[in-house]
Specification:
heterodimer, A: 107 residues, mainly beta, 7-stranded mixed beta sheet, B: 115 residues, 4-stranded antiparallel beta sheet
Chain lengths: 107, 115
């Protein structure tokens, strides 16, 4: 199975900050990497697919980059509604695996 | 618009069985590969299993913790996906989500395994 390692597991940031979350795959997954946002009690929402493509309706302050084994999710200017948990997911294998999540909290 | 609506969750005793359903609309269900993903309380996301479309063989794959106990099936005439869960354990307690292979998700249904 492909293992996904996210860092950090949590972070504290202020509104307006630039936030970066990283995800590393245990083997090359090309660009088959997706990012989700999840708020308490809600289903995960797709933000980024294929490493860098913005899902329709997602604000442009979210961006993704990377290929192979190393990937990054960046929020250019953190907004109040962005405080949530973020997960990476590989879809290179039809057997999905997820990172352990990054909780973004208010400083 | 793609819609996925899970149902069938509830409280069940260890060793018991439960069948979850996922009603799909807004896409051609018979052509879709479908997944189940779960999330234990306060924990991260865990892929449970996947079924390919019948045109792609209709085969299933499962995560190691549920293999041999859970079975995924689909009814193309009803546009519905199922997850049959047998020999349930307390560690199967989670919200269960169905998801298409192109990343549309339902809202989830809670399964609690407790005596």
């Amino acid at each position: 199975d492909i293992q996904m390692t996210q860092s950090p597991s949590s972070l504290s940031a202020s509104v307006g900050d630039r936030v970066t979350i990283t995800c590393r795959a245990s083997q090359s997954i090309s660009s088959y990497l997706n990012w989700y946002q999840q708020k308490p009690g809600k289903a995960p929402q797709l933000l980024i697919y294929s490493a860098s493509s913005l899902q329709s309706g997602v604000p442009s302050r979210f961006s993704g980059s990377g290929s192979g084994t190393d990937f990054t999710l960046t929020i250019s200017s953190l907004q109040p509604e962005d405080f949530a948990t973020y997960y990476c997911q590989q879809s290179s294998s039809t057997l999905w695996t997820f990172g352990q999540g990054t909780k973004v909290e208010i400083k | 618009e793609v819609q996925l609506v899970e149902s069938g969750g509830g409280l069940v005793k260890p060793g018991g069985s439960l069948r979850l359903s996922c009603a799909a609309s807004g896409f051609t269900f018979s052509n879709a590969w479908m997944n189940w993903v779960r999330q234990a309380p306060g924990k991260g996301l865990e892929w449970v299993g996947r079924i390919k479309s019948k045109t792609d063989g209709g085969t299933t794959d499962y995560a190691a913790p549920v293999k041999g106990r859970f079975t995924i099936s689909g009814d193309d005439s009803k546009n519905t996906l199922y997850l049959q869960m047998n020999s349930l354990k307390t560690e199967d307690t989670a919200v269960y989500y169905c998801a298409t292979h192109d990343f549309y998700w339902g809202q989830g249904t809670l399964v609690t395994v407790s005596s």
